[in-house]
Amino acid sequence: MKPRIIPRLLLSEVIAHLRNPEITIITGARQVGKTVLLEMVKDYLVKNRGILAEDILYFNLDIIKDWEFFQDQGKLIEFLRMRSEGKKIYVFVDEAQKVADCARFFKGVYDSHLNVKLILTGSSSLELKAGLKESLSGRKRLFSLSSFCFSEFLTAKDKSLAELLKSRSKIPIIERKRLISYFEEYSIWGGYPKAALARSQKEKLAVLAEIYSSYIEKDIVGLLEIKNKMGFSNLARLLSGQIGQLVNVAELSNALKLDRGTVERYLWALEETFIIKPLIPFYKNPRQEIIKQNKVYFYDPGLRNYCLEDFHHLDLRADRGFLLENSVFKEMLLFLRIFQKIRFWRTKQGSEVDFVVFEKDNCLPIEVKLHLKKTIVPVGLKNFIAKYKPKKAAIVNLDFFDREVKIGKSKIYFIHPYELEDMLKKV
Questions:
Q1: Deepest of 154, 170, 227, 424, by most Cβ within 10 A of its Cβ?
Q2: How far apart are CA 292 and CA 246, in angstroms?
């Protein structure tokens, strides 16, 4: 049976860039769907742009026979020059980082001024970044593909409900209950496409196990040559139990019996391979606010729960609040505009706000609460509003939607996580 193809939000951005001469580069963790995205782009070129299939060349460097085209840069340039005589061709290279000195290699191809559009993917930002900034400066645009966001996940699970959300219609009560159930599933099993489309929990678990195993063997041992797999995995497990909390490198070093430099290298590796994302503090007065320690979240909650070996329902978990917070954080990362930044706020006096999204002089504080008995504004959010007087604030929760209250001139909106995209547009 042919696997279901779920439209990706990034597709429109990639398609828009096809008219630009620069190299289109799509990065992302293993198995988030980069190859499928390439298939979507190829299909678009044929059906919507009238490009002949013979003018779209596809190379997968996971396949040995495709390697021969990339052993000699000069031969490849001459081959492409002949194929593009009198017409434009499109060259897709999947797993492009496997080409030796890939940034310089593709810079040479680009600088040959062929009538060729290059579209590259890479599972690891590490190899692509090796010479990317300098070698391909002004010659590329980088796109990052994540595992499914919630709207993509919902399309995979319940297309009719997904379409209802897209229509921006008011959601009936019975549909809201389904929506909450799906977001809880998303927070537990995450958004890796194969896991989201799996029919049973056993199959989901097998998919996540294979993704993590492949990640450790190919990225961590193979690419980074980290031999201490146990130490690395223990760090990932330790961090999975600390999402949404301040991370102290010295404490991690002591707990793992690893030197500080090793821990810092492992943290860097986890970030560069799209597993974790640090969150730094928001502050204007460093004397009053904590600025030394970051928080850490996982790019995919399913992989986080795999590291923790816990897939219990949210209501049965002690970490349910942090888990929802992690899922909300991932959603916000995907919908931030180019000049928007995200931070957390915490003072020495103990006032906290989970997230602060800001752009220039405007900011939007966001608090995450799993369940609320009333539309009550938490003390930390009240303190932030008193200090910074934002026009808007939001409390993301699974109980109250379409509610708002005012504190002074600040409006506080009670929203479901699916409303985050629209809320960020108001910053």
A1: 154
A2: 9
